[in-house]
TrEMBL record:
Pfam family, one: zf-CGNR
Residues annotated as domain Zinc finger CGNR: 135-178
Membrane-spanning parts: none
Name the record gives this protein: CGNR zinc finger domain-containing protein
Amino acid sequence: MPLTQEARVNLTLLVDLVNTGRSGHEELPDPASLSSFVRDHGFSTPASGTDIELQQVHDVRQEFSTVFEAESVESVVALVNATLLRCSALPQLVRHDDWGWHLHAVAQTAPLADRIAVDIALALVDTVREDELSRLQRCAAEDCDAVFADFSRNRSKRFCDLGNCGNRTHVAAYRRRQEEEATPGKR
């Protein structure tokens, strides 16, 4: 069974959240940016707009960024289970906005960081169960530390969508080959 649309949306949330804190690229510097992030990702209740909430979301980001370096499935499972326990997850089917029936595992009144963490944890549940953790990767460009979820059919994606990394890498390789061909005696 392929990953559900809900799992894909929440894996994209994970990727986008981790990418907001890449080295030298803090994209959630204040509560207003967090509110925009939450709105862009379709959360049904808004952020409260406090510095404490922002710090809690930063903590979730740091915690889940470890998924992209996970040494084993068991380490991801431990993170997921700890998150679900910490957030007192109790899954329920709900329907709102343009979404059909889907799972919410914490109340809409739960802290934003818990709602984000549990949504990501549930997506990781599906990802682990479908043996698809290899879809969560770091960009192959040497100068990029972004992450991505590879939803391609043949799992061939190697570069993120943030910095034109694939194109830059391919152009650099082409230029190196051209330079090697133009230099006599070099091969």
